[in-house]
Amino acid sequence: MRHYPPRPSILLTAAVLLIAVGCSVSHYIPEGETFYAGMGKVSIESEPNIEEMHLAKADVNRVLAYKPNGSLFGSSRARLPFNYPFWIHQNLADATDPLGRWVYKNFGSEPILISTVNPPLRAQVGKQVLEEYGFFGSTVVPRIIYDKDSVTAKVAYDITMSEPIRLDSIDYRLSITTPDSLDLRDPRKRRLHEGDVLSVWRLESERQRIASALRDRGYYYFQPTDIHYEADTLAVPGKAQLRVDLSRETSADALRTWSIGDITYDLYDRHRSALTDSTRYDGILFRYHQRPPVRLRFLASRVRLEQGQVYNERYQTSTVSSLSELETFAYTNVAYSPRHTPDSLSLLDVSMVSMEDKPYAAELEATYRLKSNNQTGPGLALSVNKRNVFRGGETLSVRLQGNYEWQTGYRTSDKGSAAWDINSYLFLLSTDLKFPRLLVPGLYYRPFTYPAYSKLGLTAALLSRSGFYRQMQFAFDTEYRFEPFKGVRHTVRPLSISYNHLVRRTAAFDEALEANPGLGLSFRNQFIPQASYLFGFETRDPLSRHTFSLEAYVSEAGNLLSLCYAKDTPRPYRLAGSSFAQFVKGTLELRYAYQASSMISLASRLYSGAIYSYGNQTVAPYTEQFYSGGANSLRGFNVRTLGPGAYSPPNPSPLSFLDRTGDLRLEANLELRAKVVGDLEVATFVDAGNVWLLRQDPSRPDATLTSRYFLRDVALSTGLGVRYDLSMLVVRLDLGVALHRPDRSGGAYFNTFGDKKNLPLALHLAVGYPF
Asked: CATH number of the domain at 166-255, please?
């Protein structure tokens, strides 16, 4: 047999691995230098518990942090103990072969030295940061911690905090009289008050407030730097007497009010053709090639600037954001040119430029799902968008989606083969037509400060669960969404009609429906004519440790339609040969988070929801019912493995998940999050909740809500989780432990550890935070 010499790539790989585990870093460090192994502990002495300290600590840590070679998850403290990048950098820098150049480019790196990190300079910058937050006299001292080899070291920092300087008095000397006689010293609006810490971010915040207030009243050239501060820290020990005045470099134009002059709007097509035509519409001169890409009445209604109007910065911002909502232009620019008239008017001529974007956009998305109910499988989705369909900024979207999944986890004890694997597939075709305005009389042309749109949608879906059933769904939906104020949003769906049709069913599925008549009613062929309203509110203060959000939802189905039938018409009322649902539904979700420090935060959520069916049908459609468990619910349980109440299927089967729904859902979640290294975060959590029925169901005993067994019906779980922030998204892995499973037998409360073969554990892989 002929022997061939090893391939060069194999030899190179073997050599790199040997070097990675056997070579000391000292081989690559110049004489007299020290290798930087990461950041050590930052100790803070006399740390005050005030808001400025919370902000200053985060900024100081950012200044002092420096990532070492092989940083673990972007950490400045932990690194991988591999030295092969140094060998590659040293030996393959002059490589001429393609493989060597590729290895050098992708895996080589130069050792980071203590001199490169420059701890004294970082300590000096950290001291300046503390002074900017009012902690004058604080010290930051670097400390080099050498390893045993005296060639490797970490850098620690010792910070001694001083008492913050607070404001004793504030003297506003701004002599600016606005057209509406605005009081710039109004204590209710200003950001500086006696007793506040003298910090740069407070001073800058007050500068921004004054400048924005003046720019909203015609002072176009006024900038925050035109505000000048003087602080006397000697008159009162430990305090500052602050004077707020105009800068000596403030120009005359900055103290003059300006009005809008001529407005010109240039509209370029995507080929940037010459502007050959023009039309003056609503006081604006539009220039374009042949015809404007968007009808002028829609464009004019979004330009908040008017000729003769006093300049207002908010109107400029609203104009740009409103035009971007059209999703028609690649960019929009606004420029101003000053002009003084003979009658002493100061005018700003406005020049606006927009360029049309490409008319079509397509996206192909491939996914592979791992669900909490042991279902897994691939998916593929194709989306095509047509912009500016009717030359009013409308967007037509078509989405074709397909998913195939199989359920694992149920195994026979003798052969180990799948006993109840459920194969399923989904095909979905949806079409949406989105209008960047509210299609409501009187509001059709009105631009909102924040995004507003109307949408019409059509959807057709086919779901097949092999061996059980095949169901089709058709839906038509109308939606209005708008935000009248910052942090407040409204979503109204005045008409939403869906039709569920069971096109095929097997004997096994019929057997399950016979055992549970209520389940059969929820799966019947039926129309769901629905109207709904959603209200959302959230706080958006980046300087606050507290964040809060609220989301309330209410919907009704079939009530108006039932009025069209005579009282003597036998129930259930039918529409096109099929019955229709009649119910009311509501949900309320509250979220609160507290940022204890730059490393630790606490997040919580309360959720409640209820649906009540009456009149035409007494069982809610299956798609509208509530369920519990899973990655965003009780993480100690897999999805649809809880409830309703204390009910548990007597004979578990692959269709058992169908029974685990209810008319009422209550849930509470608490999660403590802590940053470990870099962008890696760990969490511990506690979840509690369940679903219940509002009516008795003989096929599901112990499923209704009762005051006697309420606490025993509430499931409890805890666990640990890991999160990794990829900047664009957060990847989450949670291991949940079930502590209490709903049970009315009166036994021990922690009742999930009796079966040694089935540990009460659930693993969830998800994207994004659970709440």
From this structure: 3.10.20
